[in-house]
Design a protein that fits this description.
alpha/beta, single chain, about 425 residues, Aspartate Aminotransferase, domain 1, Aspartate Aminotransferase, domain 2, 2 domains, about 15% strand, globular, 16 helices
């Protein structure tokens, strides 16, 4: 890292090993738009392919532009190493596939993004991986679902649409003695939440959202904390401790610490096995674009959160709004979690249940003039969507209700425009 600072404003600009391009001394991170890399010699190539040393081989596996993005996001999260992939959805798939095979299971929070529910409930089922769902309102629900084939716990820190902050430490503490890592999606809370500090073993993001922040590039990242003890129960993690036939019997739990000096077998396996074989690589140009967003994410998150507080207060008083859903508005322990885990703001995501149900929701969406009606969150612009007819429409009524989606529910992603202008557009749409 070019600086020892732990401040996110500084990490976004200086995190990682990149200081300047040594060939041309440019300060901006160059776009290495290449497929492949010249080897120094036959011996050099042999060492790279045999994992005797690390270096660039092929952009499907690694790329210098992407490497800078990986290092900076890992530093932002307080992790040891990162791996970028083509999308947040690819990251969601990889974090599970890296530890699971046919016959295995995971325990996931019930509070999930609709696309993740489809991935877990349908696609993973077809692959022979069972997903067991635990209500996170009581962390002990996770322990009740563990058996010998449970490989990981999974959760979103601030899931939409429920916006109930996940009990990170409580669930991480349950899994650790069993050798079960907690993997969390921190997409909605960069900067304002540090899951690794609370015990998460692995953190992932859709870089498309707040970190990229400008709605122009799709990408995902997985960050390895480097502090999870994979040896607590070696039988629990066969992908880490059993010989890998695709690398001449390499045992990742042994080989990676010897090669890197770091406790990162999880992220190295994800790179050299999953990324190699599945090919979900991020484009170097997308990495470059997302780096531009990363440089200002700390400043934007502050504005996102400040605006959200003002919008929340306005909507709570509006006669057309039945209910406002926000991280701090939940009762009791669930509301307290937001104040315990989120620092420097409580997020930009908000939900409103409109009086009048389905038709009121559609009319509101169609009446917006400044806010964009798009299937995205975390843009610098303010966004709105009606989940029941879009993002969650593939779920059945039972699953939709369990996810917290009602016919009149509208999800808002509050942007960084002037708060007065956001409120004015919401007001006119509600009154239309």
């Amino acid at each position: 890292m070019t600086t020892k600072s732990t401040n996110p404003e500084t990490i976004g600009l200086h995190g990682g090993t990149f200081r300047r391009d040594e060939s041309q001394t440019s300060v901006a991170v160059p776009i290495h738009q290449t497929t492949s890399y010249q080897f120094n010699s036959a011996e050099h190539a042999e060492k790279l392919f045999g994992l005797k040393e690390f270096g660039n081989i092929y952009t499907r596996i690694m790329n210098p532009t992407t490497n800078t993005l990986e290092e900076r996001v890992a530093a932002l999260e307080g992790g040891a190493a990162g791996l970028c992939v083509s999308s947040g959805q690819a990251a969601s798939a990889f974090v599970v596939q890296n530890l699971c095979s046919t016959g295995d299971n995971i325990v996931s929070s019930t509070d999930l993004y609709g696309g993740t529910v489809n991935l877990f409930t349908n696609t993973f089922k077809s692959m022979g991986v069972e997903v067991r769902y635990a209500d996170p309102s009581d962390p002990k629900n996770f322990e009740k679902l563990i058996d010998d084939k449970t490989r990981l716990f999974y959760a979103e820190v601030l899931p939409n649409p429920s916006l109930r902050v996940f009990p990170i430490k409580e669930v991480a503490d349950i899994g650790r003695p069993h050798g079960i890592p907690l993997i969390v999606d921190n997409t909605a809370c960069p900067v304002i939440c540090k899951p690794i500090e609370h015990g998460a073993a692995i953190v992932m993001h859709s870089l498309t959202k707040f970190i990229g922040g400008h709605g122009n590039s799709i990408g995902g990242i997985i960050v390895d904390s480097g502090n999870f003890d994979w040896s607590v129960n070696k039988e629990r993690q066969p992908n880490i401790w059993q010989p890998d036939p695709s690398y001449h019997g390499a045992v990742w739990g042994d080989v990676v610490p010897q090669l890197t000096g770091a406790n990162i077998p999880y992220i190295i396996r994800a790179r050299v096995v999953l990324l190699r074989d599945m090919g979900s690589a991020i484009s170097p140009f997308n990495s470059f674009q997302i780096i531009q967003g990363l440089e200002t994410v700390a400043l934007r998150m502050k504005q996102h959160c400040e605006n959200a507080e003002k919008v929340k207060k306005f909507l709570q008083k509006h006669s057309k709004v039945e209910k406002v859903i926000y991280s701090t508005l939940h009762d009791g322990e669930i509301g307290d979690r937001a104040k315990r885990y989120l620092k420097g703001g409580y997020g930009a995501l908000m939900g409103i249940e409109l009086k009048g149900g389905l038709e009121a929701g559609k009319k509101f969406i169609d009446s917006l003039k400044m806010l964009y009606h798009v299937a995205n969150i975390g843009d610098a612009r303010s966004l709105a969507i009606h989940p029941a007819s879009t993002t969650h429409s593939q779920l059945n009524d039972k699953d939709m209700a369990a996810a917290g989606v009602t016919p009149g529910y509208v999800r808002l992603s509050i942007g960084i425009e002037h708060s007065d202008d956001i409120i004015a557009d919401l007001d006119q749409a509600l009154n239309a």
